[in-house]
Amino acid sequence: MSRRGWLLFLAMGLIWGVPYLFIKLAVTHVPPASLVFLRTGLGALILVPLAAARGQLRPLLPAWRPVLAYTAVEVALPWLLLNDAETRLTSSLAGLLLAAVPLVGAVLGWVTRTDRLDWRRVAGLAIGIGGVAALVGLDLGSGNTRALLEMAGVAVGYAVGPFILARYLSHLPGLGVVAASLLLTAIAYAAPAALQLPGLSLPGNALAQVVGSVVVLAVICTAIAFLTFFKLIEEVGPARATVITYLNPAVAVALGAAFLGEPFTAGIAVGFVLVLLGSALATRRSRPVVTPDPVTAPTRTS
Fold it and tell me: Looking at residue 299, what is its pLDDT?
């Protein structure tokens, strides 16, 4: 990985390790759907005028179907599921469960034949799944099946998004794609937000907490983060871009412990090591497949 790639990797690892703390703070007072609206609405207010001024929205029109698909799997559905899951989970555990995103990405690469699985990567998948099982068994508990299913949906969405981006939207301006995604999501959640937000009654300290959380989520963890993420994908590719989840959990755990008093449990200790080790093995680049007949044998990239 180049020096620029490492800098982008570290920046994204830090930036996307932060949202779990602020989501937890916000959903204490704001319904999950309304939080999606506030985060994407403010993000769109920042990025849509910038994208429009640069002429980066009109080129999206012929590709409206993949733009909608990307919006759904990367923003609209995962953010609602994540917000709702954090009403039941600690921010630390939410961040750790999403460390499984590279595992899903490795499976998708194999299914779509854009990558292949050798024995090391299969072993990595097994170890990573064991780590998720440790998190679930030791920390999540049987009473949080809904939260587990929601986090699984988030992980799948976060893994599928980069593949759609690379395959169908890589020729389009990244700023235009993310601006359109935020705007479309804000529009989709405007109706539930209109019903929920007027009924909220927040004391002064809670209002300040919500406003501060929404600003951080929208400006730093959304607008700035997505622009940085697109640069990371350009630099290292979609599969390895998801490996920022190696660093995200550590940031999430540290912030949860420091600001929310969340415990560092046995499940976190065991699951963290296994998931990261499994992800590291599962996302290793496979050796090219050597075929005896390059004319008739199908080509598979590594």
Answer: 32
